[in-house]
Design goal:
InterPro entries: Met_Sox_Rdtase_MsrA_dom, Met_Sox_Rdtase_MsrA_sf. The chain is of the alpha+beta class. The protein has a single domain, classed as Peptide methionine sulphoxide reductase MsrA (Peptide Methionine Sulfoxide Reductase, Chain A, 2-Layer Sandwich). 37% of the residues lie in helices and 19% in strands.
């Protein structure tokens, strides 16, 4: 078991949340008629993109960068932690099917919002917990969701998620998009991303698309 643990730890250090992939940025889609948009960051975007895309009413989720001050950043630039961007996911959803408040609850369920600038083996401000609001109502929904988590005493420490006004979102490289589903053999996905997705499924079962609610 110790040898296995050492192997997994080494693999995670080598692979990380991204490693030596071809360049090329994804195209940021425009919201369709009737669609609303929400933006959240909770560690490596591979897991967060998958988790939020499994919710009923979510039409698509795009991995990218937000919260910083560098225009059109690359993964390599964000990883230097000089851009102040965090890995984030932009969600396009039908507000008639799922509310922003429910998305906020799912976001908080899909990672540990009490660890400052860290999610599991990923350390740094680019992995910080951060949620963006586009209106006073969204800000209030985020604050209410955080208050609920703190009151539940589910974690020994309080939520440290940043709640900030939305400014701009930059889509990440194409290879990051849908990475969770196309790279299941990546040790990082199995050891770090999958537990986050399963955690969200368990907490948000009634809001999942049918294919993801099976067996929970």
């Amino acid at each position: 078991m110790k040898k296995l643990a050492l192997y997994v730890a080494s693999a995670l250090l080598i692979v990380g949340c991204a490693n030596g992939q071809p360049k090329g940025m994804a195209v940021l889609p425009k919201p369709a008629a009737g669609e609303a948009v929400a933006t959240f960051g909770g560690g490596c975007f591979w897991a967060m993109q998958e988790a939020l895309s499994e919710l009923k009413g979510v039409n698509k989720a795009i991995s990218g960068y937000a919260g910083g001050n560098t225009a059109n950043p690359t993964y390599e630039e964000v990883s230097t932690r000089t851009t102040n961007h965090a890995e984030t996911v932009q969600v396009y959803y039908d507000p008639k099917v799922i509310t922003y408040a429910t998305l906020a609850e799912a976001f908080l369920s899909a990672h540990d919002p009490t660890t400052l600038n860290r999610q599991g083996p990923d350390v740094g401000t680019d992995y910080r917990s951060i949620a963006f609001y586009r209106s006073d109502a969204e800000k209030a929904a985020l604050e209410a969701a955080i208050k609920k988590v703190n009151a539940s005493k589910h974690y020994p420490n309080p939520v440290v998620t940043q709640v900030v006004p939305f400014k701009v979102f930059y889509p990440a490289e194409k290879y990051h998009q849908g990475y969770y589903r196309t790279n299941g053999d990546n040790p990082y996905i199995g050891a770090v991303s999958t537990p986050k997705v399963l955690k969200m499924r368990k907490a948000m079962k009634e809001y999942l698309k049918p294919e993801f609610a099976k067996g929970i």
